[in-house]
Every structure is written in structure tokens, then in C-alpha cells.
Amino acid sequence: MTALSEQFGFQRELVLSSFRRQVRGVQEAYQEAEAMINRLVAWAKQRESAKQTKDALVLPQEWLLLRGPVGTGKTHLAMSIANACIDVGLVALFATVPDLLDYLRATYGPESDVTYDALFMQLRDAEVLVLDDLGTQRSSPWADEKVFQLINYRYNFGWPTVITINKKAWTYLDERIRSRLQDAGLVLAVDMDDAQDYRPRQGKNVRRRSSSAESAVSSEQ
Ligand SMILES: Nc1ncnc2c1ncn2[C@@H]1O[C@H](COP(=O)(O)OP(=O)(O)OP(=O)(O)O)[C@@H](O)[C@H]1O
Ligand SMILES: [Mg+2]
């Protein structure tokens, strides 16, 4: 299962504890990601005990939408949720929407060893699904329809789903999808408007580390 997610760049080691929550504008997103993890982990444990009594437990209705500018940690948080779920035995899948569509298209081909239906159903029926970068796919009637089908199916059951979207992409989103994501009765939406791109900071950290390594080398010479 994780192998499928890895095709989309899923990193198994990305966890909530490596996310710096003190960074400006990310607190709410962090807290909601953490709360969702706690509820899903609790549910997984409940299911474990219910197995003995053979009670069937219905998946909790949990939708989280992280909407914000680039580099604000949306993917990091979304992967952290998937990882925490996998750790407790839930079937959690991660997919980046544009790559997913390429992948689905490829499964139409004669050389593909996965059938389109099987792949689509795996994603559709996953206990937890993370869809990263919604709305950045090149729009086409086919692509819009596939994404809509996937989201709509899970929406109808309320099955645990995490969606990340760039603020700009939100404006161009298929209105049928947008309407469902605006259902406040199901979807917890977090706007990360005040957060800033974290990537330049990462760069600084790396440079600082390598320049101190360089000076260590030069002082040894
Ligand atoms: N608060 C944070 N603490 C630690 N690392 C962070 C934080 N925010 C972002 N990062 C790191 O910065 C990089 C960019 O974050 P990420 O990919 O999650 O951003 P994003 O919001 O998904 O961006 P994009 O919209 O471009 O996809 C990642 O390596 C991530 O681990
Ligand atoms: Mg991202």
C-alpha cells in the first residue's frame, strides 16, 4: 500500500514532531492535524478491541482542508497524518493530484500491470486518503471528472480525507468540488494565509551548516 503512495513522493519519515509549530501562521493547521491524528488513532485502537467482539465499526467522518500559500507546510502536515495512521494499522494512501491523474491515464495503456479500476478503487476505498495539491492538475473534462468522482464518493460517506490546495488553485477549482469542500458540517477548513514560505529558511539552515563545515575544514588545513 505504501508503495503506491511512494510513487507520488510520499515520505514515510515525515512526522508531526519534525514540524515547527511556533512558525508564524501555522498553529491552527498544526493543531487540527494533531487533533485529527488523535481521533483517528483512537478510532484505530477502538477497532482493534472491537475485533474480538466482531463488532463492525464505521469509519469516523473526518475531513481536513489545508489551504494556503506555497511552502507553508501543507504537504508536511498531510504526510504526517498519513504516517500516523499507517503506524496504527489504518490503510492510508497519499497521492499528489496531478501525478495521480498521469498515473491513472497510464493505467489505461496495454503495458500497465495495474488495471485502472483496481487503482481507482484502492484510492476511493482507502480508510484514509490524502490528496495533495488539488487543483494544480491541467484541467480537462477527463481530469475534472476523475477527481470529482474520487472526492464525491468519499464525501458521500464522509470517509477520512485530507486535501491540500494552493490559495490560487482554489479560485479555479471545479465548482462541484469547491461546493463540497465548503460543507462546514463535514470539512474542517484551515486557511494558512499568514504563513510564509518555509523553503528559504531551510536553505539558510543548510548554507549555515555547510559554511560552518567549510570553515572547520579550512581551519584544519
Ligand atoms: N513549520 C515547519 N516546520 C518544519 N519544516 C517545515 C515547516 N513548514 C514547512 N517545512 C518544510 O519546508 C518544506 C516545504 O514545506 P511543504 O512542502 O510542506 O509546503 P507546501 O505548503 O506543501 O508547499 P507547496 O504549496 O509548494 O506544495 C518541506 O521540506 C517541509 O518539511
Ligand atoms: Mg505541497
TrEMBL record:
Q: What is this protein called?
A: IstB-like ATP-binding domain-containing protein
Q: Which Pfam families match?
A: IstB_IS21 (PF01695)
Task: Tell me which Gene Ontology terms the entry assigns under biological process.
Answer: DNA replication
Any coiled-coil regions, as ranges: none
Composition-biased stretches, type Basic residues, lie in: 201-210
Gene Ontology MF terms: ATP binding
InterPro entries to which the protein is assigned, alphabetical:
IstB_ATP-bd, P-loop_NTPase
Region of interest: Disordered? 198-221
* Taxonomic source organism: Dictyobacter alpinus
> Which residues belong to any copy of the IstB-like ATP-binding domain?
58-168
Extent of Low complexity compositional bias: 212-221
